[in-house]
């Protein structure tokens, strides 16, 4: 039970019911880490509230007793954002999993924090609408809000920052905030500060998100996907830049290096050429798709592409994108028993060829086993590094490589994280990215909303 008194644990049980509170070691351990390599002490208790009123009461109780609060969704983050560095209470929001309100004529939906992106799209299947933001994992939508998540569709549909209309947030002391006003779901506003934007990407450090109003999109009339192999990383990324410069409305454009392509072939039973490769997808009418495909093929051929392989039926497309979403597990299979460490930087599109070519050279020079993959349509890419967590020297090399990559991105006017967040591991890089005044402003905002510093302590700042 750690630092919590028996009386405090009984107070938790009185609020949510005994079955919804656990101090068991195995349960606490499970909630003390995410998919990252960051490891630290677990929380002192795990609580499953059933509604927003209970979340508010739990926050007020914890805050009144000086007990840290750690929000928890599906645990699929990769920056250590759920680690309980000071112990405290982990509030697992997965039991709150209702779709509260669907407004199809206004292209919006209100979801509780336990609703995952796949569950939402299954619910929307017959509505002609969908929610396109798609990180690799089947993450909870409010967790995706908290981390500012993104995915393969971001080049066309935007990230979570572009698709959140309103948030219901329980502040650290238990008060309830509606960031755009209760029940509102307008597309634009010039009314006051952008409180919704403040909480998107806040990583649980400012409050607990208990409902999100999300922007939906019309499901495309038709889709077509393709793979295209290239003689070099430079040729593949030059093609990406040229496709975007030609204003081809590509919905997805993903890069996989030769090592990643080899791993995906083996893991997902693909038969693609082992070479730097682009995965592409186009959405629209049949006529528009034909034009987009033709223009893209011309651009890639101009850059020396080997050949296009089109996936026009739904089954082929699903297989292709399942392979892309399983790239993390494909990479891990290259070195059984290893752990994965995923980097995540984003640079202006024009600097992408330069940083990717340099990163490939750095990866070879480091002696580490790793792959490069990314959402290159918006300048965002990852290295998945495979490491033996029991080898301190190798861990140091991974850390040095990740920091060097982050600083290289900053030097090219980019960011140290395009979508994973800061969490535990990138706090120093955040300081270098936003500067002293930026950090001080963030600390002042944190101190105003969370004066006791109890919301997910040790993260971001």
Can you give a write-up of this model?
This protein is α+β, with helices and mostly antiparallel strands. It has three domains: about 5-90, Uridine Diphospho-n-acetylenolpyruvylglucosamine Reductase, domain 2 (2-Layer Sandwich); about 100-215, Uridine Diphospho-n-acetylenolpyruvylglucosamine Reductase, domain 3 (2-Layer Sandwich); about 220-410, FAD-linked oxidases, C-terminal domain (Vanillyl-alcohol Oxidase, Chain A, domain 3, 3-Layer(aba) Sandwich). The protein contains 16 helices and 19 strands. It has helices at about 5-15, 25-30, 50-65, 115-125, 140-145, 155, 160-165, 195-200, 235-245, 260-270, 285-300, 315-325, 325-330, 350-365, 390-410, 425-450; strands spanning about 20, 45, 70, 90, 100-105, 110, 130, 165-170, 175-180, 210-215, 215-220, 220-230, 250-255, 275-285, 310, 340, 345, 370-375, 380-385. The strands form four sheets. Strands 12, 13, 14, 15, 16, 17, 18 and 19 form an eight-stranded antiparallel β-sheet that branches. Strand 8 (about 165-170) and strand 9 form a beta hairpin. Helix 9 (about 235-245) runs antiparallel to helix 14 (about 350-365), helix 10 packs across helix 12 and helix 14 (about 350-365) packs antiparallel against helix 15. The longest helix is centred in the last third of the chain and has 23 residues, at about 425-450. The radius of gyration is 22 Å and the shape is globular. The two termini are about 30 Å apart.
């Amino acid at each position: 039970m750690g630092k919590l008194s028996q009386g405090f644990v009984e107070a938790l049980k009185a609020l949510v019911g005994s079955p919804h509170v656990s101090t068991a070691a195995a349960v606490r351990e499970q909630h003390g880490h995410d998919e990252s390599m960051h490891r630290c002490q677990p929380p002192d208790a795990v609580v499953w509230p059933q509604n927003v009123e209970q979340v508010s009461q739990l926050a007020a109780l914890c805050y009144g007793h000086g007990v840290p609060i750690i929000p928890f969704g599906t645990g699929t983050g990769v920056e250590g954002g759920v680690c309980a560095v000071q112990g405290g209470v982990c509030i697992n929001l997965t039991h709150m999993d209702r779709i509260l309100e669907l407004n199809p004529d206004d292209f919006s939906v209100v979801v509780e924090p336990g609703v995952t992106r796949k569950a939402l799209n299954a619910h929307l299947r017959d509505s002609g609408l969908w929610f396109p933001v798609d990180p690799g994992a089947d993450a909870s939508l409010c967790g995706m809000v908290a981390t500012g998540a993104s995915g393969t569709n971001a080049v066309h549909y935007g990230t979570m920052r572009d698709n959140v209309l309103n948030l219901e947030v329980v502040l650290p002391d238990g008060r309830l905030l509606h960031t755009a006003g209760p029940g509102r779901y307008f597309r634009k506003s010039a009314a006051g500060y952008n409180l919704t934007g403040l909480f998107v990407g806040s990583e649980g450090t400012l409050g607990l998100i208990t409902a999100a109003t999300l922007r939906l999109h019309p499901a495309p009339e038709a889709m077509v996907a393709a793979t295209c192999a290239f003689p070099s990383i430079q040729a593949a990324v030059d093609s990406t830049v040229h496709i975007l410069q030609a204003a081809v409305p590509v919905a997805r454009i993903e890069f996989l290096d030769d090592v990643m392509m080899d791993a995906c072939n083996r893991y997902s039973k693909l038969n693609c050429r082992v070479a730097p490769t682009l995965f592409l997808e186009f959405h629209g009418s049949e006529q528009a798709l034909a034009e987009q495909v033709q223009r893209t093929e011309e651009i890639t051929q101009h850059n020396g592409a080997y050949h296009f392989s089109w996936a026009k039926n739904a089954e082929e497309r699903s297989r292709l994108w399942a392979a892309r979403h399983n790239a993390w597990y494909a990479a891990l299979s290259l070195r059984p028993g290893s752990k994965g460490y995923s980097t995540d930087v984003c640079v202006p599109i024009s600097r992408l060829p330069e940083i990717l070519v340099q990163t490939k050279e750095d990866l070879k020079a480091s002696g580490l086993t790793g792959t490069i993959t990314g959402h290159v349509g918006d300048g965002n890419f990852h290295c998945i590094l495979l490491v033996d967590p029991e080898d301190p020297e190798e861990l140091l090399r991974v850390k040095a490589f990740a920091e060097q990559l982050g600083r290289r991105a900053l030097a090219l006017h980019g960011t140290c994280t395009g979508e994973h967040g800061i969490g535990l591991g990138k706090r120093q890089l955040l300081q270098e990215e936003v500067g002293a005044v930026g950090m001080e402003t963030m600390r002042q905002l944190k101190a105003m909303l969370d004066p006791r510093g109890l919301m997910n302590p040790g993260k971001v700042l």
